[in-house]
Design a protein that fits this description.
The complex is a heterodimer. Chain A is α+β, with helices and mostly antiparallel strands. The longest helix of chain A is centred in the last third of the chain and has 17 residues. The radius of gyration of chain A is 20 Å and the shape is globular. The chains are: A alpha+beta, B mainly beta.
């Protein structure tokens, strides 16, 4: 396997509805932004592409992937469509990584899109819930927020996690997005605002849950030789990991925790894992990515993370999967301020100010605030992480507030339905 | 304030949008074609309805069980793993499992109250979803809890004893069984 670099990225403005563009038009916006950011890059030089979108239902169009590929002018070169629920975008980037690492491609475009506004929100929830077992799960009351709510209720029962700790994640991500013009929801909130919002599935309120969006995102990956020609700010994809778990949450086993280098077996003597409180796929993806990248202590070695916060609860559960804290400490980790940005006033009190900003999580605002146009989401994370590591946040956002000073290593984490597919990729500044 | 959600229900009142639309047979068109790029998008309604003949395949005995007021799980004869939601093949070792009858008394492993839901289930909101656990059974079962006030949700429901109840007129869906508190 040879090294693979990320050289450019682009995002369309995420919005509740973009009736002015078809999915091809949205993909083109993101793709052109990425092309324009590396003026040396011509269409000819891109020798392969990978597209991603989640649901054929939203467009009522099969093979949307090739329709975007032809619109972008990438035919007749190799291309494929990747689908893996909410992790579609993360899987797409990893598939493009494989194209280059294997030597099949020199410059590969990875782009994704979703146009969710073509149906109403509750029909959209029905489509998403079809990503649960239609024999046993969907007919009982198929609703993803309900599934995640059951998971966090068990997390609360197991570890004492509180709804206020979940709300802190919502406050953080909405406030971060205040400085991100790409985001769909840019709000200054209090814990009380989150808790007083209408209940969706106990204990998750409307402000604990991401919204549906129309949007597209694109990253351009390149071999070392091609990357050197294209940019003086390349970012190395230092490690990749992918994990899976059973579709039915009821089928998740109760076994032992696969340990990260910074954990010991006695940390989890009585813990039955993953049950429904944790994402085994997220742990497996993290473990693989860390091994690949040679990371021993993620909290110390990773400068920021863009992770899949479709729910505030899943952000907290993911802190644990990724080893930022031990299993059970996710709620406390959120409330400690460690995943917050140092330079933003969130209106919250943190117990120890010196711990604030130790490893900012979702400096972009994450899914909760940016929106979740499923096929684009994991790629959007890649774009924001690229800009962080290039130090170009101000250039692209016209606001430098969320730029993490001297960011050298970042992680992106993409996650599908109740933790069925999870990808983690480690990115590193390479200039 | 523009960036704050308005949490006052009176101020947030609005007429619910519907999707009937309006029958329209023509739209204005500019003489100057360069103005076309400024045109508003045209949205048309496209209905989509389909009946599937969904087969439960190897899971069919479970649904026959519900119609006969029995809850069925499966057990792996090779490694002993037991499934509260049946699988004919063992996820742990790949062997073919055997059917067995599950007890109708169980406990709540976790729950939620859905105040909103997918379109199909919106009229039923609020409803309570639970994961059911049994001693000695390795996996859980998704079902509904009926009886308690959905507005009084509390973590104390976790671990409560529950009992299965069955629809008299079976619909051959997993909702042919539901649970009530048994303690």
């Amino acid at each position: 396997m040879r090294p693979v670099y990320m050289v450019s990225g682009g995002i369309s403005k995420f919005a509740k509805a973009r009736p002015d563009r078809t999915f091809q038009g949205l993909a083109k916006e993101a793709f052109d932004y990425a092309m324009n950011d590396v003026p040396e890059l011509t269409l000819d030089m891109i020798d392969a592409s990978v597209s991603s979108y989640f649901s054929d239902h939203f467009q009522r169009q099969l093979m949307s992937g090739i329709m975007a590929t032809d619109y972008l002018g990438l035919c007749p070169k190799p291309a494929r469509r990747i689908e893996g629920g909410g992790a579609t975008g993360g899987l797409c980037i990893q598939s493009a990584w494989e194209m280059i690492a294997s030597g099949r491609s020199e410059v590969c475009a990875a782009y994704g899109f979703e146009t969710m506004s073509h149906v109403n929100t509750w029909k959209g929830n029905e489509f998403i819930a079809l990503a649960s077992d239609v024999s046993f799960d969907y007919p009982v009351g198929g609703f993803y927020t309900g599934y995640y709510a059951m998971m966090v209720v068990r997390h609360m029962q197991e570890y004492g996690t509180t709804p206020e700790q979940l709300a802190a994640v919502s406050v953080k991500n909405h406030a971060n997005a205040f400085h991100n013009p790409y985001a769909q929801k840019r709000m200054k909130l209090t814990i009380e605002d989150v808790r007083n919002a209408p209940m969706v599935a106990w204990p998750l309120t409307r402000l604990d849950v991401c919204v549906m969006s129309d949007g597209a995102a694109c990253v351009i990956l390149a071999s070392e030789e091609a990357a050197k020609k294209l940019t003086d700010k390349p970012v190395l994809i230092r490690g990749v990991g992918t994990g899976t778990d059973a579709m039915r949450m009821a089928d998740r086993p109760h076994l032992k925790v696969p340990l990260l280098p910074n954990e010991k077996e006695e940390d989890y003597k009585d813990l039955k894992y993953p049950g429904v409180h944790s994402f085994r796929a997220g742990r497996m993806a993290s473990k693989q990515a860390y091994e690949h990248a040679g990371i021993k202590d993620p909290l110390k070695e990773i400068d920021f993370i863009e992770l899949h916060d479709a729910y505030t609860s899943s952000e907290i559960q993911t802190y644990e999967d990724m080893g930022l804290c031990k299993y059970g400490e996710g709620g406390e980790f959120a409330a400690s301020g460690k995943p917050f940005l140092k330079n933003i006033d969130y209106g919250l009190e943190f117990p120890d100010k010196s711990q604030v900003g130790l490893c900012p999580v979702n400096p972009s605002g994450g899914l909760i605030a940016c929106g979740h146009p499923v096929g684009a989401t994991g790629i959007m994370q890649g774009v924001f992480a690229l800009w962080q590591l290039q130090g170009t946040i101000e250039k692209h956002l016209n606001d430098k507030t969320i730029q993490i000073p001297d960011a050298k290593v970042g992680a992106i984490h993409s996650h599908a339905g109740t933790g069925t597919y999870v990808t983690v990729s480690i990115l590193e500044k390479a200039f | 304030m523009a960036n704050k959600p308005n949490l006052n229900p009176e101020a947030a009142a609005k007429i619910e949008e519907t999707e009937e639309g309006t029958v329209l047979f023509n739209v204005p068109f500019p003489k100057d074609l360069s103005q076309l790029k400024e045109m508003s998008p045209i949205l048309v309604k496209q209905p989509y309805q389909i009946d599937y003949l969904h087969s439960y395949g190897q899971d069919s005995p479970f649904f026959a069980g519900l119609a006969n007021k029995k809850l069925l799980g499966t057990k792996c004869p090779k490694c002993g793993y037991t499934y509260g939601t049946p699988r004919l093949h063992c996820m742990m070792c790949g062997a073919e499992c055997d059917w067995f009858e599950l007890p109708q008394e169980a406990r709540i492993h976790t729950f939620t109250v859905c105040h909103f839901g997918s379109q199909e289930f919106l009229p039923q909101c609020p409803f309570i979803l639970i994961q059911v656990e049994w001693d000695g059974v390795d996996t859980l079962f998704l079902s509904r809890l009926v009886g308690p006030d959905p507005n009084e949700a509390t973590l104390d429901w976790v671990g409560r004893k529950i009992r299965a109840r069955f629809l008299r007129l079976s619909k051959f869906k997993p909702t042919d069984v539901y649970f009530v508190f048994a303690d």
